[in-house]
Amino acid sequence: MNFLVGEIITLAIKVHRKLGPGLLESSYKECLYYEIVKAGYEAEKEKVLPLIYEEVKLDIGYRIDLLVDHRLILEIKSIEALADIHTAQLLTYLKLSGNRLGLLMNFNVKLLKDGIKRLAI
Predict the structure, then answer these.
(1) Three-state DSSP class for 14?
(2) How many helices (H) and strands (E) does the chain have?
(3) What's the pTM?
(4) Domain total in the chain
(5) Could you read off the pLDDT of 51-109 as tens digits, one per residue?
(6) Structural domain of residue 47, as residue ranges?
(7) Where are the alpha helices (DSSP H) in 20-120?
């Protein structure tokens, strides 16, 4: 899994170097998706994540930005600064999906390495 994380971070840095900060989240998401697929990984965009409550499946609008190889969640942001709510969002996605590892990536920074947060449960 560490190899996959390293590869995805390398691809994200490539996207960030080409585009720079200041664009919409959707721009980075689409370009990163393109790079991930081009590199031979399986990826899903805007994967629906239902909430199961008392055995009832509720589709209430949760969407994983990118899911790589059915096991790594990428939550993409383009904001001034990451906040605790963004960490909570990714932790919720990990819990609801049953996945154990995710990357919270804020592309609106000078150096992308300063905008990446790795979370595991």
Answers:
(1) helix
(2) 3, 7
(3) 0.94
(4) 1
(5) 888 989 888 889 999 999 999 999 999 999 999 999 999 999 999 999 999 999 999 99
(6) 2-120
(7) 25-38, 84-97
